[in-house]
Fold these 4 entries.
Entry 1:
Amino acid sequence: MTRRPDARILPGMTFDLDRIGGPKALARLVDEVLAAGELGLDLYRKGAGERAERKPDRSPVTEADRRIEAHLRGYLERTYPDAGFLGEESGAKEGAAGRWILDPIDGTRAFLRGIPTWSILLALEVEGVPSVGIAYMPATEELFVAVLGQGATRDGRPCRLSAVASLEDACVCHGGLVQFTDAGLEHLLPRLARETFTQRGFGDFASYRELLQGRVDAVVEPGVQPYDVAPVAVLVREAGGRLTDFEGRDTIHARDFVVSNGPLHDAMLELCRRPA
C-alpha cells in the first residue's frame, strides 16, 4: 500500500459534518454499521467461523469479513461516490473527497473462537486527518463514535481517560505476542513487565475499549495497518489522549503505535524507543 502524506493535527481542528450530509447522515452511517454487526453475528451463528480460510500472509478470513466489507463498501460508494476507500479485504480505491477506511472484522481470530472482542472499525480520513471514527463491538453491543472537534462517546456517553502519568503506576495493554516477534520488538515485552505496574493482553479493539473508559492507561501495538487504528485515532484524540507512531508522529500510516491517555505518552515513547 502506498504511504500517504500525514497532515499536521493542530489544536482546535474540527470536522464539519455537513461534508458528509450532517448529523442525520452520521446517524444513518451508524445504523449501517449496526446492521453489519447483526450480519456478522448471524453468520457466526451459521458457522462462518468454522469455514475460515487463510490469506497469503496466513491471517484468517471468513465469509463474515467479506460480506460485512461488501455491505459497508456498497453503502459508502452509493452514498459518497466521490470518496476513496481502503478496506482490509477488498483493497483501495482513490477518490477526490476524502476516503473511508474499513476493517470489517478487527479480531478475526477472536471471531473464530467466539471471543467477544471482535469489532467493526470504520473511519473517514480527510486531507490526511482521521476525522470520523466508529467502532462497534457486536457481541457486547458497545458502540464508540467520535468526530474531530466534537468529542468521543461510548453508547452516547462521553469517553473518559485516566490521569495516570508515571510508568510505575501504569496499566499497559498489548496485542498478540506474535505482533512483537514479527516486528523484531520482542525485547519490549520484558521491558514492559519490569517498568510498568501491570500489563494486560486484551487484543483487538478491546484494548482501546478499556483505554477509552480509563481502565488502562496505554496500549502498545506493533505491526498493524491504517484500518486497525484509523477510528482509534479519532476516538482517543477526541477523548484527550494521543495516538502516534514510535517516533511520536501523529499518523495512522506507520506500523508500530503507542496510544495513551496523554500524560503517560512521552514516558511510553521513551520506553519503546530505547535500544534493545
Note: The chain has two domains: 17-158, 167-273.
Entry 2:
Amino acid sequence: MAKAATKSKKPQKIAVVMFNLGGPDSPNAIKPFLMNFFMDKNIIQLPIPFRCFLAAFIANRRSKREAGESYGEIGGSSPLLENSRKQAKALEKSLKGSGDAQYKTFVSMRYWHPMAPQIVREVRDWGADKILILPLYPQFSTTTTWSSLEVWNKAMFQAGYDVPTSTICCYPENKGFIQASAENVRAQYDRAIKDGYKNPRVLFSAHGLPESIIKDGDPYQMQCENGAKVIAKAMGIKDLDWAICYQSRVGPKKWIGPSTEEELERAAHDGKAVVIYPHAFTQEHVETLVELDIEYKEEAEKMGQHGYYRAATVSTHPKFIDGLAKLVKTHVKKLGVYAEGGKPICGNFEKCCMLMTDAEKKKAA
C-alpha cells in the first residue's frame, strides 16, 4: 500500500523592517520633510503649539536655502531611500536560504515616504509571521531609533496588526560594521600617505545633538565615541592620530563637541592632512555628499588645511551586509528589544529601550 504523502512544513515568513530617517524625493518635498522632522517631539522638546510654530518657522526658512544649496547640489532630492533599498536588497540576498525561514526586507522612513503606516500595510499584506526591526543607524538615540519605534508601534496599533516582533536597538561595535569601516578609512588613509602626507589625522565625524538631549539620558555620544575607538584600533596603524567630532549643528542651543569645524581648524593649525569618516551614517546622503564632500572641504581650504580625504560609508560593503545578516539570524528567535549581544550597552542612561519597563514604553509611545 502506498504511504500517504506527508505535508511539507510551510517556511516561516519573517519581515525585516529597516528603519532610516528619510529624505525629500523632489524640491517640493523639502519643506514638508523638514516640517515632519522638526515636529518630532524627540527633536524639539516643546509643547505642541510652540513646537508647531517653531517647526513651521524653521521649515520655511531652511527649505528655500536647502532647495538651492544642499539638495540643489545633488539634483534636488535625497538619495537616502535608494541607497537604503540597495542595502535592504543586499541583506535579503544574504539571508536567502537561511534555515527554514523566508525573509523579505522592507525600508521604513521616519520623516518622508515610505513611512511606517505604508510599510505596516505592506508587511501585513505579505503575511509575515514575525517582524524583525533593524535600524540602519548603528548607534541608539532617542532622535533616531526611539523616534522611529514610536511611530512604528503607533502604526501597528492603528492597523490592528499584532505579530511577534524582535527589535535590534543598536549595534555600534558590530564586527561587520567595524571591519567595513576600518577598510574604508584605511583606503583613504593609504591614499593620503601615497600623496605624500605623513601621519594624516582621522576625524570620525558623527551627526551632532544638543547637549540637553545627552544630559536627558541619550547614549548616542557614548556609543559613537566607543565605536570610533574600536574602528581606530581595527585599522591596525601604530600611533594612529585620530579624533572624534560632530557635524550639522543648527540653532542656538549648545551642542556636543568638538565640532567638525573646530577639528578641521586644529588640523590646519597642526599642518595635518585629514581623513574624515562619518561613522554614524551607513549610507550616502546629503550630509555626506554635500556637507562633508563640498561644504566642509571648502571651509578646510579657507583655513589653509591641505590634504582633505573622505572615507565612504559602509553602504553595501560585503562585511557590513554580512554583519547585518548575522545580527538578524541571532535575534530572529528573540522577542522584545535587544542590543547586539543581548545586554544593555547604554551605560547608566535612562532612555535605553532594554532598561525601560513595559509601562514606561507604553507611556513614551
Note: The first strand starts at residue 13 and ends at 20.
Entry 3:
Amino acid sequence: MLNTVILIGRLTRNPELRYTGGGTAVASFALAVDRPFNNQQGERETDFIDIVCWRQLAEQVSQHLTKGRLVAVEGRLQIRSYETQDGQRRKVAEVVANAVRFLDRPRTAAPAESEAADEDDVPF
C-alpha cells in the first residue's frame, strides 16, 4: 500500500509550535494550493490543506517559515476523528509531513531611510 502526498503552496499563517506532554515538538500550519485547472468562470480555485510536522522538523518549520512563504511538503495523508465538547463526532484530514523544502527566500524588511541613500546618491 502507498500513502504519499506531495504539495507545493504558500503558508496561510505562521506555524504554531507546541509540545506534547512528553516534550515532543509538533507544529501545524495551513497550505494554500492552487488547483491545476480553471473553474467554469475561468478562475483558479485554491484548496487549504492542514499540515502537521513533528520533532526536529516542527522546530525548524516554526523558526524559519512565516505566512506567505512558498514550500514543498512531502508526507502522508492522515484522517483522524475526535469528539467535540458537546459530544459530536468530527473527522479531520491533514498531511503529516516528513519533509518540508523552502522554495523561496524570506522577505527582508525595507532598509531604514538612513541606510537607503547616502548624500552622494541624492540626485539634486
Note: Confidence is low (pLDDT under 50) at residues 113-124.
Entry 4:
Amino acid sequence: MIDSYAAAGVDTGEAGRGIAALVGALGRARLGRPSRSRLRSGHYASVLEIAPGLGLALSTDGVGSKLMIAEQAGKLATVGIDCVAMNVNDIVCVGAEPIAMLDYIAVPRANAAALEQVGIGLARGAELAGIEIPGGELAILPEQVHGLELSGAAVGTVALDAVVTGTAIRPGDALIGLPSSGFHSNGYTLVRGILGELALEHTDELLAPTVIYVAAILELLRSEVEVHGLAHITGDGLLNLRRLSETVGFEIDAPLPVPPICALVCEQGGLAPAEAYQVFNMGCGFIAVVPAADSERAVEQLARHHEGSRQIGQVTDRAGAITVPHHGIAL
C-alpha cells in the first residue's frame, strides 16, 4: 500500500482485494459454451475470438477525479480527449487497431454548454485516435451524481496470430519510452490532496490532455520492427510493466525527464521517488519493448510522432523486479 495515496483516500491494497473479489465472482459465470476469450485477465485489453483468426479487443476506462479540476476551472473542452486516450491506448497495447468507442456521461442535470465542451474533446480525441464515436449514453442522476462523470468503452480488431501479449519478452530487450504530457488521467486524488488550492494556479498544466499514442504504435506494429510488448503507463506507474510478464524484470536506467508539474507535486507532497513511480507516470506515458537490435529503428519511428522518445532501459532476468537505479528504486 502507498501511504500518501491511502491518506488521500485511495487504498491501493484495498482496491486490489476488491478487484480480486469482483474477478472471482465473474469467473463463476457459466455460459454453457466455451469461452471466446483469447487473452488472460489483467492485461490492458480483453481479446475475444469473433471469427476464425480474428479477435475483438475491448477496453473501458474513465477520466477520474481530473474532472473535478476541470469543473472547478470551467474548462471541459479537453476532458473528452482524456476519455478517448485512456481507452484507445489500452486497446493498442494488445496489438489491436482501435475502431470505435462509446461514451458514458453522468450528470446531475443536462447543461447544454458543458456537454458541448465535453463533446468537442471527444471529437478531437476521436480524430487523433482515428476512431468513430457512433453513440453513447447520457444519464441524468440528480440524487446520485454531484458532478460530471465521463467514461468510455472502446473496441478494436486484431488478427489472433498478431496479438501482443508480452510472452515474447526476453532479457536484453530494449525499453523505449514515449513522453507523457503530465499526469494524464491518473493519481488526481493524490494530486488534489497535495496541492489543495494551489491546484487552481496550475490548472493549464493539470488539464493537459492525455497523449494518444495510437498512430505511433500502429506504425511501429506495421513496420519491420519486432514488437515484444506494449505498456500504457497509467495508475500504478511502472508497476504496469508487470502486466506484460512476471518472468522477467525491467530496469529503467535512463528515465525520461519528469514534467515540472509532476516534480512540483512530488516536492510539495514530500513523495519519495519509489512512491511517486508507483502512482504517476513520471514523464513516461507509454513503453514499447523491442529486441535490442531493433532499438534504434524503433526510436526513430516513434520519435517522428512523439519527440523525446528514446531507450530508457532494458529487460533483465530478475523475475518481477522493476528498478530505477538513478533513484535507488527497487519495486
Note: Residues 130 and 210 are 16 Å apart (CA to CA).
